[in-house]
């Protein structure tokens, strides 16, 4: 079985970015902004990791942290501040935002600074097969699969989950004209989901349930990508039962698979925005 080692591929991406930025004065380096609302430990861990990555490659960090009690007006003010800040190349609003729907905040992000690729305009570029900034986790999955030369054109892909950060944009990306996979989305209302999963050549699990995908649910030799994370008693678990390794032809580990690749794609998106800005 092939282990889809996201750490290794992410390290190579970060090394290339670091080399590109070496020698640039501070004023010419891109800056990544983050807006974090609330006290969720996982969100704080994710954001801290993103800023460590920035320090590693030479991207400047800009941070705004707000309490869970922050008003919508305060969150929008933070977004507006980054939209106007010339030192901020791009930024993210860390999701989820406690007690709120995310869409109004994602809509408020300047599409040209939306390094998470979740503003409706950037999602529209993805839908229309146009070049643009795409969501980080779908990009991470595609980049990881291509790095290991996993065939996708014409291949049956089952995506488990239909969230806005992974499932739905991933379905658009993999079914686009430059990938050409045949995609099925499996969700809570799908009739006979195990039949669809067992027929798939590639299974991507993004449901957020510990060990949801078991060996009996996949066909021998299938490629399996574990995206979902669940914290149980302080420990992180993926969506895929470890025993799936006995059946799969390729499997991404948790941790060390999609997670580091997602952070690397955030840096790559920042660099795309930075290069575009430098050409103007």
UniProtKB/TrEMBL annotation:
GO terms for cellular component: cytosol. GO terms for molecular function: methenyltetrahydrofolate cyclohydrolase activity; methylenetetrahydrofolate dehydrogenase (NADP+) activity. Pfam families: THF_DHG_CYH, THF_DHG_CYH_C. Residues 4-116 form the Tetrahydrofolate dehydrogenase/cyclohydrolase catalytic domain. The keyword Nucleotide-binding does not apply. One of its GO terms (biological process) is tetrahydrofolate interconversion. Residues 135-277 form the Tetrahydrofolate dehydrogenase/cyclohydrolase NAD(P)-binding domain. Pathway: One-carbon metabolism; tetrahydrofolate interconversion. Keywords: Hydrolase, Multifunctional enzyme, NADP, One-carbon metabolism, Oxidoreductase. The keyword Kinase does not apply. InterPro entries: Aminoacid_DH-like_N_sf (IPR046346), NAD(P)-bd_dom_sf (IPR036291), THF_DH/CycHdrlase (IPR000672), THF_DH/CycHdrlase_cat_dom (IPR020630), THF_DH/CycHdrlase_NAD-bd_dom (IPR020631). PANTHER family: C-1-TETRAHYDROFOLATE SYNTHASE, CYTOPLASMIC, C-1-TETRAHYDROFOLATE SYNTHASE, CYTOPLASMIC-RELATED. This is Unannotated protein. It comes from freshwater metagenome. The lineage of its organism: unclassified sequences, metagenomes, ecological metagenomes.
């Amino acid at each position: 079985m092939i282990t889809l080692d996201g750490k290794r591929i992410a390290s190579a991406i970060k090394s290339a970015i670091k080399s590109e930025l070496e020698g640039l004065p501070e004023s010419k380096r891109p800056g990544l902004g983050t807006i974090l609302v609330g006290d969720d430990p996982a969100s704080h861990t994710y954001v801290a990791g993103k800023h460590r990555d920035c320090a590693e490659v030479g991207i400047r960090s800009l941070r705004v942290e707000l309490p869970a009690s922050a008003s919508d007006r305060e969150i929008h003010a933070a977004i507006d501040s980054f939209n106007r800040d010339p030192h901020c190349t791009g930024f993210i609003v860390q999701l989820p935002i406690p007690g709120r729907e995310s869409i109004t905040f994602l809509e408020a992000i300047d599409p040209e600074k939306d390094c998470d690729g979740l503003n409706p305009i950037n999602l529209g570029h993805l839908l229309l097969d146009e070049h643009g900034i795409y969501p980080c986790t779908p990009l991470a999955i595609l980049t990881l699969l291509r790095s290991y030369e996993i065939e996708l054109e014409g291949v049956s892909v089952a995506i488990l989950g239909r969230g806005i950060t992974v499932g739905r944009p991933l379905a658009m990306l993999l079914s686009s004209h430059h990938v050409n996979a045949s995609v099925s989305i499996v969700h809570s209302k799908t009739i006979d989901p195990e039949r669809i999963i067992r027929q798939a050549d590639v299974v991507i699990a993004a449901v957020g349930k510990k060990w949801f995908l078991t060996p009996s649910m996949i066909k021998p030799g299938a490629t399996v990508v574990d995206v979902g994370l669940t914290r149980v008693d302080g420990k992180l678990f993926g969506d895929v039962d470890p025993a799936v390794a006995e059946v799969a032809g390729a499997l991404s580990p948790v941790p060390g698979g999609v997670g580091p690749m997602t952070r690397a794609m955030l840096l790559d998106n920042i660099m795309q925005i930075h290069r575009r800005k430098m050409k103007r």
